[in-house]
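#struct-pred
JK: can someone run the complex with zinc ion? inputs below
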Amino acid sequence: MVEIRLTNTRTRKKEAFTPIDPRNVRLYLCGPTVYDRAHLGNARPVLVFDVLVRLLRHVYGADHVTYVRNFTDVDDKINARAAATGRTIREITEETVAWYHADMDALGAARPDHEPRATEYIVQMIAMIETLIANGNAYEVEGHVLFDVRSFPEYGRLSGRSVDDMIAGARVEVAPFKRDPMDFVLWKPSEADQPGWDSPWGRGRPGWHIECSAMSAALLGPSFDIHGGGIDLQFPHHENEVAQSCCAHPQADFAHVWLHNEMLQVEGKKMSKSLGNFFTVRDLLDRRIAGEVIRYVLLSTHYRKPMDWTQGKADEARDILWQWRLLSKNVEPAEAPHPELVEAIANDLNTPGAIAVLHRLKDDPPLLLSSARFIGLLQVGDDEWMRADFDALDSQVALGDFDQVLTRLQDRLAQIRADAMTSKDFSRLDRLKSALIDAGLEVRMSKAGIELVVSPTTVQKNVARIAEDLET
Ligand code: AMP
Ligand code: ZN
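RT: done, C-alpha cells with the ligand placed:
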C-alpha cells in the first residue's frame, strides 16, 4: 500500500498517515462565507483538498472516503450585503452557492460528499453550546454565550502560543462582560432585523467557530482524520474549533491531522477581500483563462509555500497543456497513473513534483494521460478552451500581431508532427502544410524543429499566379 505522509500542524511534523477507520476516511474543510464570488485564494484550499481526496480514494477505495465542506450562510457580512442591495439573505446565499459551485467545477474540483449549511445545523449548535455550559467551559452573560478559554488548558496549542502571549499581541474585541479578553462568542443576540433563532439564551445567532465544530461532529463524528483550511484560519478559528469540540466531547480528540495551506499572495500580501487586492476565479474565466490552466498554475507550487499568480505562469501553463493535449489526443489512458506521480502526491501532496513527472512522460502519451488525470488535468471535455484559443489566434491575425502568431503556429505544428509520428497518420500534418504554403509561407521541417518563413519566393510565385489568372 502507498504510504501517505502529511505535514500535521498539530505536531509540526511530517508524519505517516494512518486513518482511524480505513473503511471510512473522514475529512473536513472550512468552506466559504457565501455573500460574494470566491477569489482566487479561496480556490487554493479547495484544489489542495481535491488532490488529497483523489489520493485517498485511490489508496482506500472510492467509497471509503467522506469529504465534508461547509457553507457559512449566517454572517454579518451577508446581512450587510442584503441591507445594501435590498435583497433577501436567502437570495444572496443561494446565488453565491450556485456561483461557488460553477467556479469550483470549472477548476475540476469534485464536489464534497456533504456540503452542510450552517443554518441547517442551528439545533446541533445550540445543543453543543448547552453541553459546554454544563461542562463548565462556557458562560452566559447579557444574552451572549462565551467560551471560557481559561477552562481549557490546551488552548493555544494548535497555533503554538499561550493565552497570555495572545492577549499581549492581540487586537481582540474587549467587551466589558468577558471574563478574559480571549474568550470568544458562541452565541449572540439578534436585533429584530437580523436573522435569529430561538434559544435558551433568547433570540440570537451562532458565532462563526461553533458552526464547524457542530457540523463536523454531526457528519463525521467527534473524532475524524483530517481537518483543513488556509493557514490564516489556524488562529483563532481552528484553535477555537479545537477548544469547543474537545470540551464538548472530552472522550474524543477531534481532528487527528491539521492540514494548512499557505496563502496566495499579491505583491507579497495575502489576497483577501478586506485588503481589496483580489480578483475572482470568475474574472479569470471571463478573460478566457481556462479552469484547467488555473488549476495547473495553482498546483505548480507546493501548498505549504506562499505563491503569486502571474500572467506569465498562466501563459506557460496554457502552452504546456496545449502540448500535452495534442500529444494525448485520440489516445486511451493507461490503466494506472505512473507510480512516481502517486508517490509524489503521497509525499505531502507534492504537486510540483507530480507535474515534473508528467513532463518526463511526454514520450508515453497513454501514461501521460492517466497520470495527468490523477491530479485532475487533461480531463475529458476540459479541452474546449483549446478551440477558444484557436479563435483567439484568429483575432490576433486580424490585429496584425503576426510574429506571435507565427511562433505559436510553429509550436503547434511541431506537436502535430510529433502526434503524426506516433500515430503514423500524416494526413492532418500534410493538409496543414499545404494550407500554409498556399498562404504564402515556406515550411521548413528538419530534425531540429519546424520553421515558418514568410518566403518572398512563394509570395512571388503566388503573385505571378494571380497575375496569370488575371491574364486569362
Ligand atoms: P474565507 O471565506 O475568507 O473564510 O476563506 C475560505 C477559505 O479560503 C479558507 O480556507 C481560507 O483559509 C482560504 N483563503 C482565504 N484567502 C486565501 C489566500 N489568499 N490564499 C489561500 N487560501 C486563502
Ligand atoms: Zn471552520
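RT: quick notes.
The longest helix spans residues 402-423.
The radius of gyration is 28 Å.
JK: thanks, will look after standup
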